[in-house]
Request: fold
Amino acid sequence: MLDIVKQLAQELNIGEKQVESTIDLIDQGNTIPFIARYRKEATGGLDDSILRNLFERLTYLRNLQARQQEIIRLIEEQGKLTEELANKIQSATTMTELEDLYRPYRPKRRTRATIAKEKGLEPLAEILWAQELVDGDIIEIASRYVNPEKEVNSPEEALQGAMDIVAEMISDDADLRKIVRDYTYENGTLVTKAAVDESTVYEMYYDYSEAVKRIVPHRVLAINRGEREKVLSVKIDVDQEAILNLLLERIIKNADSISAPFIREAAADAYNRLIAPSIEREIRNILTERAEEQAIKVFSKNLKSLLLQPPIKGKIVMGIDPGYRTGNKLAVVDETGKVLDTGIVYMTLPDHDKDRAKDELKALIVKNNVDIIAIGNGTGSRETEIVVAELLKELGRKVYYTVVNEAGASVYSASPLGAEEFPDYAVAFRSAISIARRLQDPLAELGKIDPKSIGVGQYQHDVNQKRLAETLRGVVEDCVNSVGVDLNTASASLLQYVAGISSKVAKNIVAYRNENGKFTSREELLKVKGLGPKTFQQCAGFLRIPGAANILDNTAVHPESYEATLRLLELKGYSLEDLGKEGLEKLKQEIGSWNVDELASILGIGVPTLKDILAELQKPGRDPRDELPAPQLRSDVMDIKDLKPNMVLMGTVRNVVDFGAFVDIGVQQDGLVHISQMSDKYVRHPMDVVQVGDIVKVRVLNVDIEKKRISLTMKEEEL
Reply:
């Protein structure tokens, strides 16, 4: 029987004790963020990414185990289960291996082999397979099975039917299928050809081949898309003769047997008709699954970096949703995200009065004391940017602008949530509001949008959508819980990502807040309908109450650790009040000299928990995003025509893919830093060097104005 604990420990390179404790916590109904943050003693400090991998693999292995038992039961019911077969089934570590073992016993549709069996030809097949006869005439033997009533009209027909049975026996053999699968994967070539006679984005694959085992994930997804669009034909080429020889080495038991030539013929038929097409599908599925997993991994890392970009705090922001015919929709929001003003300005078409547009824009900026302008990067963005940059030079005070990825803003604006949050504003203005607010707090705003619509990553629409949605929800959950959520300002859409809180409970929290006013303590959460002790345990540590009477309610210290925290402060001559006074600086200086192991023993808590408490005491109410570099703000604009080779610029990483990173350098088109141009040293993956939101120094390598392509380098020797 598969030992799940041992298997997970080996796969994840962690201790079996850690695995056992984590599984126990999961089975108790604890959420991954809660386990990662507040059960470090039990897990040995496993982070949320390892915990999610463990959970996914645990689910897979448990499903595998359940399938093992089901297959054993089904074969046993047929009276065909042997001890050897049962052991093989219980030792299987993948679903593919398991289904290969079950293949001979799986109920089949009527095949050539089943029809031959119905005709009474199975004994003849067994004679062939045994390969014991070295003398005699096989035709003569086959003639004994001629039966016109069963539509076996000649010895040749009987022999063909017997070979059909043998071919299926060969095809159903798990060991033989593994030989073919492994050889095809290791030695096969993926070949693509043009299926159309016209120019498309898939031209590089019109006559293309690459070793199956070496093809990179993003290329697999591109080829799959081209095939789906009927632009490409795709197949796997492999040395069939070599494979057939490998099969015959294991099938031919007696080369001198009179049945050996027929076994060879049946083997060739088994491979060409039954095994090869199936194995090709399997391998392409394997390639696709791996490519999808990589795409999802890239997408999730990009999403995490995007969500954790530092918020722009304490600033009045104008959001601009650019447009041509319908004009630029404007929305001004205050420091808290409350809408102050809206408007429409026409500035992107040649026949519009640019001076009038600038006057109208200036009036809104002055009226509302706007500090920063957030311009959506959609249609008309470039033209809008030019007008805004010109205007900012004419203002009497410093106002900056930045271009914001508006992906998903239109989806949000037309959603029920958008209508619920801003019922008094038209759909067009909701987009501008979203653009402004995502600059102020990317996590809070982007958390409202379907992650697939956010626009970072590669081939997100080509992967398994259920798997993608699950993964991305996990990313949003981890980000939300790592930062913490203001209980008195968070929307229901954001609260539902907090550990343990369902969408229904999230709405109940907002309803309670609307009815009773602001929460004054975490404990008050227990008064919310549907929020019981278990949910409270999971969510409380991630919810913040700025200005609460108990300052710990505005930290990541869990209520279950309040008593220990108070005892700690008392032991060291402090009180909670000192955390908000000059005593905080003194406390910070002292903490470094404290014996953590000794204190943990005195307080009766684990060392990891104590270390987390000490970190929170030093920065009560901190936002971990504040330690990251702030978004790049601008006051001027460039055109792609202004770019020249060797220009050195600062830019913001907008997206990271398998083959490089796209960098915003202040023109409408993002430039590409190919993986080969990211460092003087070998780079395994672009994410080892940069993340979304990073500010990087680049040099222009090449500019193709016609194709709107910009090639950049980050190599030190080139800067």
User: Anything to note?
Assistant: Residues 260-307 form the longest helix (48 residues). Residues 402 and 514 are 35 Å apart (CA to CA).
